[in-house]
């Protein structure tokens, strides 16, 4: 029994470590975006010399910040959802809704991964206009988002199937 608690604690420690890394990467991406904006504003309005690379970098960083955060930083319960129906049904119906939802989202994400990866890999032959970055790096976070959606959906589906999803049994006012 104690060995099971030890493994659960180790899994929790690994999960927390990975969450810290994801949060740190997300924070660094946002910091880079913020600094790019500051440089852009100073160059444009302070020196009357707009820098083209800041526009391009800001767009790329914005894309990365949004998709990275959606994939790895923001927990599922913090995403926008309409819970009017959820709050009005029984836990058994919630469990069924959770299983159907995770199956649909995970299935769509899994089915989209190969074509999305092919497109991202195909875009490696093109570069951005100013910085010359490969579009493969620009669009890579979309594939990461799909993989994350598939993994989260699998985990959520297993939790719901084993009746271990705490949100199913929560009562909302």
How would you briefly describe this protein structure?
This protein has 173 residues and is mainly α. It is built from six helices and no strands.
- Main sheet characteristics: none
So what's the overall shape?
Answer: elongated
Number of helices: 6
Low-confidence stretches at least 5 residues in length (pLDDT < 50)? none
Helix vs. strand class: mainly alpha
In round numbers, the mean pLDDT is 91
C-alpha Rg (nearest Å): 21 Å
Report the span from N to C terminus. Answer: 38 Å
Secondary-structure element pattern, one letter each: HHHHHH
Regarding quaternary structure, what we see is single chain
Number of domains: 2
Could you estimate the helical fraction of the residues in percent?
over 70%
Q: What amount of the residues lies in strands?
A: under 5%
Describe this entry's structure for a reader.
There is one protein chain. This protein has 173 residues and is mainly α. The protein has 2 domains: 1-74; 78-173, no CATH class. It is built from 6 helices and no strands. It has helices at residues 2-46, 52-73, 84-88, 91-122, 135-161, 166-169. The protein is elongated. It starts with a helix and ends with a helix. The model has no long low-confidence stretch (mean pLDDT 91).
